[in-house]
User: Which sequence fits this backbone?
């Protein structure tokens, strides 16, 4: 079955703009998590959605938001972009989001903020 | 609080040599432990995980790891390195019955394989 897909794969924006990233989980998976990966901070958890509800949130400012649709597809939005938002944004899906479960990661969206 | 340490941000081995990537963790409760691999311009792929039971865990691509509670370690090994093993490797820890906001990733170890 198809893996986790993320669109777009690459994105260039300027400071102050906003951006929306999309993630389609593996069919049947209801949990989608988002991570930010940077050379300096490593992999950091952004938030997790399950059945259209945000279940958990990491330590990121309110400029970072997300949502999940009834088909489990998820979007994350970053408003008022800053240079430090340049990163690889990864999404991962799992069946129900338990910490013992295997998360399946997408290839990521690489965002560059100029 | 949980934390993960990976000794060595970069490791080089010769093709055919033993691969040993070190991971130490701290956790106040029994942990779940994971190793992920990331190839350039790709997402993370699970290599193996320890939840409960046998402490020696076998994963994909010939990798294995052993959970040693007394040493709070979960080192990743492979008997013979292959060129295709060159990638970034991440150790991660989570606590039992929690959700993904409690998953902590280590800083990663970049593995180079020399022909």
Assistant:
């Amino acid at each position: 079955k198809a893996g986790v897909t993320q669109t777009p794969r690459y994105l260039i924006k300027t400071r102050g703009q906003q951006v929306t990233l999309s993630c389609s989980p593996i069919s049947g998976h209801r949990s989608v998590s988002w991570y930010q990966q940077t050379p300096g901070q490593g992999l950091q958890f952004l938030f997790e959605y399950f059945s259209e509800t945000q279940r958990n949130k990491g330590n990121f400012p309110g400029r970072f938001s997300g949502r999940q649709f009834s088909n489990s597809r998820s979007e994350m939005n970053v408003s008022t972009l800053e240079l430090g938002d340049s990163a690889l944004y990864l999404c991962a899906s799992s069946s129900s989001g338990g910490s013992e479960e295997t998360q399946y990661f997408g290839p990521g969206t690489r965002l560059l903020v100029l | 609080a949980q934390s993960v340490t990976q000794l060595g941000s970069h490791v080089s081995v010769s093709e055919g040599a033993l691969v040993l990537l070190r991971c130490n963790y701290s956790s106040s409760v029994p942990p779940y432990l994971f190793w992920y691999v990331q190839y350039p311009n790709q997402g993370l792929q699970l290599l193996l995980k320890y939840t409960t039971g046998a402490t020696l865990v076998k994963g994909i691509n010939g990798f294995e790891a052993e959970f040693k509670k007394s040493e709070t370690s979960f080192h990743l090994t492979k008997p013979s390195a292959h060129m295709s093993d060159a990638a970034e490797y991440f150790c991660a820890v989570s606590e039992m019955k929690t959700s993904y906001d409690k998953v902590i990733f280590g800083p990663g170890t970049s593995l180079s394989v020399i022909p």
About this structure: The first strand of chain B starts at residue 3 and ends at 5. The mean pLDDT of chain B is 91. The radius of gyration of chain B is 14 Å. Chain B touches chain A at residues 32, 36, 41-46, 49, 51, 90, 94-103, 105-108 (CB under 8 Å).
